Amino acid sequence: MEAAIRAIAEPRRREILRLVWTSELAAGVIASHFDVTRPAISQHLRVLKEAGLVSERRSGTKRLYRARPESIAQLRAYLESYWDENLRLLKQAAEQDEQRGTRRDRRHKGN
Prior knowledge:
Elements: H1 2-8, H2 11-19, E1 25-26, H3 27-31, H4 38-50, E2 54-59, E3 62-67, H5 69-110
Antiparallel strand pairs: 1-3, 2-3
Helix pairs in contact: 1-4, 2-4
C-alpha cells in the first residue's frame, strides 16, 4: 500500500492515472500530454506499474498502459479508512466538548 501512496504523491503520476483510467494508451501517447521527456514519463509509468496501479501490455514495439481499477479501489478504501477514523475522532471530541460546556453551564447557573 505504501508504494501506491508514494506513487500517487507525484502530480504527474496522478495525471497519468487519469489518462489511462478508461482506455489503454501507448507510452508515447501518454508522454505527448506532458512537457517532460519521454524517459521521465517512462520512469513515472514504471513507478505506477511497480505500485500495481497500472498494467503494461506489449503490442509489437509498443507498450500499452491501463489503470488497474481493483488496485486503485484498494487504495481508495485504505485512504477512506483514515477519513472515517478522523471523523469518528472529531465526533468524539465535539461530544466531549459539548459535555464539558453543559457541566460548566450547570455550575455557572448553580452559583
